Amino acid sequence: MDDLELGSDQDSEIAGQVRTDRLQLLFRQSGTAVLGSYMAAVILCWLCWDRFDHSVVVGWIAMLTASTLLRVSMFIGYFRSPISDRAPSRWERRYWFTLMLSAGIWGAGAFAVIPVDDLLAQAMVMLFTVGMSVSAVSCYSAYRNMTMVSIGLVLMPCSTWLLFQPSTFQVGMALAVFVFASFVASATRKMSEALETAFRLTRELERENRLSARAARTDELTGLKNRRAFFDDAHRLFRECKSKGSVLCAVMLDMDHFKHINDSYGHQVGDQVLRQVGAVITASVRETDVHGRLGGEEFAILLPDTTLDVAMSIAQELIQAIARLKAEPAERITASLGLASSDYTDESLYSLMNNADRALYKAKSYGRNQVAVAE
Fold first, then answer.
1. CATH architecture label of 227-373
2. What is the pTM of this model?
3. 252 with 337: CB under 8 angstroms?
4. In the chain, what are the domain boundaries?
5. Of 4, 223, 257, 374, which is the most exposed, with the fewest CB atoms less than 10 Å away?
6. What does the alpha-carbon distance between residue 96 and residue 94 come to, in Å, rounded to a whole number?
7. What is the pLDDT along the chain (375 residues), one digit of tens a residue?
């Protein structure tokens, strides 16, 4: 059940990322279309100025100007907003409204200016509306429904009117537009599906890469950093503390009589003990600390900006927390800890770790289940 819930959460996460990717592509692709649709109307009116009703032309251009400014302000708002605020739930509805308004004005305006008895002007109008449709396919391809509705708003008014005109030429133009629209619908569906598939595959690949990178740095049994990941982060932390001159303490932890636990109760009990110890370490350290399993029953923790007294307190709490663990049928679980503090007279991280390791063996020699501090 947990695996099903995890898979469902991951699918939901990817679906949200794909939706965000579609929105980003929409805004990147369609910026030029905002001014392009406006300029197309202006050019059409300029070419057919002597064939159109001037008062209708002026009204159409005025409404297009207002809708274009509205869309431009939306684009400015989107690209100026922080990436965290570019959520589809916030911007998709705005885009739908401004696009439908602009496409509706375009289609209604083209229908309003088209002359009743001028075939050349009618052909010019239909040529521009078809061009607008082609532009919609290239600009809004990530959203199939958005593409089809905007094309319908631009094409249908004039095409439907032509379909009921007496001239064979006019009816032919209308039928040609409807055939074109059917091809556009098929192409739009395929393009939209291809884009969504590409987005989904990209996100799934990114997730798998993240999981692989994490797995390569994680100890499978305890969930802590593995040896390689620990030393990668430890070297970075050592350099940072040395450059700042801040205190860095190292803790080496080794389970007491762990071989006896494995030999007496089996490796399953031993693994359970190690998992519990890993959970104790994870719960005890801070975000700035570096901790990991070095191998077998040995663990290490680096405590930056931590005095020896504070580090001693943390180590004692670890000792007590481990002593409270239960892993039936093992009767008693304890650990020994070695603690060292760097004054940066050491040349490397390994000198600090070796000091903590020597203190660990001192704790073992003193009877185990205790903390020893390096001299």
1. 2-Layer Sandwich (3.30)
2. 0.65
3. yes
4. 2-210, 227-373
5. 4
6. 5
7. 454 454 566 778 888 888 889 899 999 888 888 888 999 999 999 999 999 999 999 999 999 999 999 999 999 999 999 988 888 988 999 999 999 999 999 999 999 999 998 999 999 999 999 988 888 887 888 888 888 999 999 999 999 999 999 999 999 999 999 998 888 888 888 888 888 888 889 888 888 888 787 778 889 899 899 999 999 999 999 999 988 888 999 999 999 999 988 888 898 999 999 999 999 999 988 889 999 999 899 999 999 999 999 999 999 999 999 999 988 887 789 999 999 998 766 568 999 999 999 999 999 999 999 999 997
At which residue do the structure tokens 């197309």 appear? 40
CA distance linking residue 106 with residue 155, whole number of Å? 9
306 close to 290: Cβ distance less than 8 angstroms:
no
d(CA 363, CA 352): 17
- Tokens 């593995």 — which residue? 226
Contact 313, 337 (CB under 8 A): no
